[in-house]
Design a protein that fits this description.
By secondary structure, this protein is of the alpha/beta class. It has helices at residues 6-21, 37-51, 74-86, 115-124, 145-151, 167-170, 182-191, 208-214, 258-270, 284-290, 294-317, 344-347, 352-366, 370-381, 388-403, 408-414, 420-433, 466-478, and strands at residues 63-69, 99-104, 155-160, 196-199, 217-220, 232-236, 276-282, 322-328, 331-332, 335-337, 435-437, 442-443, 447-452, 461-464. The structure holds zinc ion.
Length: 482
């Protein structure tokens, strides 16, 4: 499918020239995919007189960013875009990228994929069964894109907001037949020879500090501890959520801008003449879509976009050397829309998890009456001007919360996976926003691909997710670094 893109490559080369001419112009300068005739004429006029003496060097693809929003289908992106527009805020940075593609995500058996099979497809160019990492369906070891690029001398970074040994990051360094084999996944991480890891801890590696030291890594738990100079680094965040991953973006505090800071730390440490490849995952968009917490998944997506903005700022400094690709491994929650005030998604200020752990726990322990509790929940979820029907809905849910009289399965069926009052507030936010969850699982929907920079032309079109791997290799071959 990509062999037909030679002509497009020429167009893209002209686009790159345009970008070179536009360095410093900021986000407004992001070029359209196909330069207009006028634009091309301008390029010729401005570059032709000096071309004989000082020709612009051809693009060399040094720096490669792959951003994966876990569970970020088209609807998740639209929800965020609609909410930002409704609130009068600037759109996501990556939806302005000049190249758009669309990837089909089914696993090797044509089933709905999990994150392990999807990461393996993107990283190796081969579909596999759910749960496998870096192995085909017959358990043959596959070569990851990150390993191939490591062997060409590029520095490699793997960043995620979930745990370091979670399926998506592990898909870029591990070769095991179960995504739950956390100890074996950690073995592969320490043996990878990659230069930078950042994420929310390990599941099953109590001796991580010792293992890191034995394998030449400095292991740190916060940005402040980052050692000066070079050297391989593992940032295993201490801002742990439950048993894995960094805290939810919506809950703010020390978690604020974590993925953006991690991306900027990786850029600072990995930038060198042979270049880098980094995979950056917004890992918790998926989690909150599973649990139908709309406000929280939007916050994760905006947090992910901030990390992409850091890559875009780097791109603007190195436009003829930097490729940024933003995509997803699958859609989660079968999200669709009806009419509504999408800005309601931005007014929620607490994750359902934190609400259960703090507000609900305090109200239950004090047996706070509904009239006193209601304003606290409304404020946390950004809700106001309730109808009588909405108030009655929350009052019934809260009565169940105080009494604890619904068995788990009934509460799940009637309200959702969280405590009844928490689930009811989240459901009200989604209803007011006109956002509908069709399930709490992954779906078979295609996912979007956005690309900018030299080689981005290989990401245009509609294809299987395995083609993403091939496109990265075609891009590096088309714009080699001498
Ligand atoms: Zn998932």
């Amino acid at each position: 499918m990509f062999t037909i893109y030679r002509q497009k490559r020429i167009a893209a080369f002209l686009a790159v020239l345009l970008i070179v001419a536009c360095v410093g112009c900021g986000r407004a300068a992001v070029p359209s995919a196909t330069p207009s005739p006028e634009q091309i004429v301008i390029v010729s006029e401005t570059t032709a007189p000096t071309a004989a003496t000082t020709p612009l060097p051809p693009p060399q693809l040094r720096y490669i960013f792959l951003f994966i929003g876990d569970g970020m289908g088209y609807a998740q992106v639209q929800a965020a875009e609609d909410a930002l527009a409704a609130a009068g805020r600037e759109s996501l940075c990556f939806t302005n990228f000049p190249i758009a593609g669309s990837a089909h995500t089914a696993n090797v058996d044509g089933e709905v994929t999990d994150s392990a099979a999807a990461a393996t497809a993107i990283a190796t160019g081969k579909k596999t069964v759910n749960g496998y990492l870096g192995l085909d369906e017959s358990q043959n070891r596959l070569i990851d894109l990150s390993e191939t690029l490591r062997d060409t001398g590029k520095k490699i970074g793997i960043l995620t907001t979930v745990s370091l040994d979670h399926a998506t990051p592990a898909g870029f360094y591990a070769h095991v037949d179960s995504r739950r084999s956390y100890a074996m996944i950690a073995d592969d991480l320490f043996a990878s020879g990659f230069d930078f890891f950042a994420g929310g801890g390990f599941h099953d590696t109590p001796d991580a500090a010792q293992r890191a030291a034995e394998n030449g890594y400095a292991l740190i738990h916060s940005f402040e501890e980052a050692p000066a100079g070079g050297g391989s680094l593992i940032l295993s965040s201490s801002l742990i959520f439950g048993d894995y991953g960094v805290l939810p973006a919506i809950d703010g505090g020390a978690r604020e801008d974590w993925l953006k800071k991690a991306t900027e730390l990786a850029i600072a440490r990995l930038t060198d003449p042979t270049g880098f490849f980094m995979m950056v995952e917004g890992g918790r968009i998926d989690y909150f879509c599973h649990y139908n917490d709309a406000g929280s998944f939007i916050a994760e997506l905006l947090d992910f976009d901030e990390a992409v903005q850091s890559a875009l700022a780097f791109y603007e400094q190195h436009p003829s050397e930097t490729l940024i690709v933003v995509t997803a491994d699958h859609e989660t929650g079968l999200v669709s829309f009806t009419e509504g005030d999408r800005a309601a998604l931005l007014r929620q200020t607490i994750s359902c998890d934190l609400c259960d752990d703090t507000l609900v726990a305090a109200c239950v322990s004090a047996q706070t009456p509904f009239e006193e509790a209601l304003p606290l929940f409304l404020s946390a979820f950004g809700l106001s001007d309730l109808t009588a029907e909405e108030t009655a809905y929350l009052e019934t849910a809260y009565a169940h919360t105080l009494k604890g009289d619904l068995p788990g399965s009934t509460a799940n069926e009637e309200y959702g996976v969280y405590d009844p009052i928490t689930s009811a507030c989240a459901a009200l936010v989604a209803a007011r926003a006109g956002l509908v969850f069709g399930s709490g699982a992954h779906s078979a929907l295609d996912v979007p691909v956005y690309a900018i920079g030299p080689g981005s032309e290989f990401f245009a079109g509609t294809y299987e997710n395995t083609a993403l791997h091939d496109a990265f290799l075609q891009a590096t071959a088309a714009y080699p670094v001498p």
